[in-house]
Specification:
alpha+beta; Elongation Factor Tu (Ef-tu), domain 3; 18 strands; 4-stranded antiparallel sheet; OB fold (Dihydrolipoamide Acetyltransferase, E2P); 4 helices
Length: 339
């Protein structure tokens, strides 16, 4: 400590105090700023890291073919069920015609098989009746031979007739079983032909691609003459009923957020307006890497070379937005929540 003597026995300490005053003031100010920040953030949770989003419906055809008509334009508003494009129906129409012919042929075979089964059944019935008659004749001959009323030759003839009748009955029964097997096969062929016809009819119905939801066409690149491929998305629609705001908040705020709470949203696409919103939910987790499969949301921890605290997505739904409010998927937003 630097001490100045002005009179004998007196020490001046003012310069030493002035020397330490600035660090003390800075430290006190820093502590006060931190305390003020914690106090403010306990009542106001603000983030500028927010954006507007919706569901992007990727519309894919369910059949492959050449596109013969496109019924929408880029950025057009569509309603659920509106026709988007038409795939050449001619190949499907021909397939349906061939399927109908195959069904008729299969039915004709099945009908013939039923007639064959009926004929085989009649043959078996006749053979069974003859067999029963020969059994009775043989039994009478066997009974009379003991009394001498019948000769051995007559008994042998009765036995032979019974044997032939039994063989004929077995053959008729086998023919009936075979006819039933063929009928079962052809009846299965009828079911298969009808299923294939139904499939071709379904494919024909899918040559007109309808909109699955209300929304707006975005980034349309489909043209007449392009080839539509099964299950390959060709048209994107921004869903008109799934608008929400995703606000990425620091971890320190999350403890105060509850589903159903109120938030206020500022949209950069329409500034100088605050819109009331409801907290729909808080993400239960985030991914710390960009590695697939991406089942958890990833929030970049850095911006402009500055590492930020980890942030978690908070989903917000606007409450009764004005009818004329136009929302843009991906637009920036800012959010204030009073925990």
């Amino acid at each position: 400590m630097l001490l100045l003597r002005t009179r004998p026995g007196r020490v001046q300490v003012l310069p030493a105090l002035l020397r330490w005053r600035r660090p003390v003031v800075v430290m006190v100010g820093l502590i006060a700023a931190i305390a003020l920040y914690w106090e403010i953030t306990s009542f106001i949770a603000y983030t500028g890291d927010a954006y507007v989003t919706s569901d992007l419906v990727a519309v894919a055809p369910q059949v492959t073919g050449r596109i013969v008509a496109v019924h929408v334009t880029d950025n057009q508003t569509v309603r659920r069920g509106d026709k988007l494009l038409t795939i050449d129906p001619v190949p499907r129409e021909l397939a349906v015609a061939a399927g109908r012919a195959a069904v008729k042929e299969a039915h004709a075979k099945a009908d013939a098989d039923r007639d064959a089964v009926a004929a085989a059944q009649s043959t078996l019935d006749a053979a069974t009746a003859i067999l029963q008659y020969n059994k009775s004749t043989q039994a009478r001959a066997a009974a009379l031979i003991n009394s001498g009323a019948e000769s051995q030759q007559q008994l042998d003839a009765a036995n032979e007739a019974l044997r032939r009748a039994d063989a004929d009955a077995d053959a008729a029964r086998a023919a009936l079983d075979k006819a039933r097997e063929v009928m079962a096969i052809d009846e299965a062929a009828v079911e298969q032909a009808e299923a294939e016809l139904a499939t071709e009819q379904w494919r024909l119905s899918k040559t007109n691609l309808p909109s699955p939801t209300d929304g707006t066409i975005t980034h349309l690149t489909v043209r007449v003459g392009d080839t539509a491929r099964d299950d390959v998305p060709m048209i994107g629609i921004v869903d008109a009923h799934a608008w929400r705001v995703i606000a990425n908040y620091k971890q320190i705020y999350l403890r105060a957020f509850r589903p159903g709470g109120t938030a206020w949203v500022w949209l950069d696409s329409k500034p100088w307006h605050w819109y009331r919103a409801r907290i729909e939910g808080v993400a239960a987790g985030i991914s710390r890497t960009l590695d697939p499969p991406g089942l958890l949301p990833y929030v970049a921890p850095t911006t402009d070379w500055i590492r930020l605290p980890r942030r978690f997505p908070v989903t917000l739904i606007l409450i009764k937005p004005p009818p004329d409010l136009e929302l843009f998927m991906g637009a920036d937003a800012r959010v204030v929540i009073f925990p």
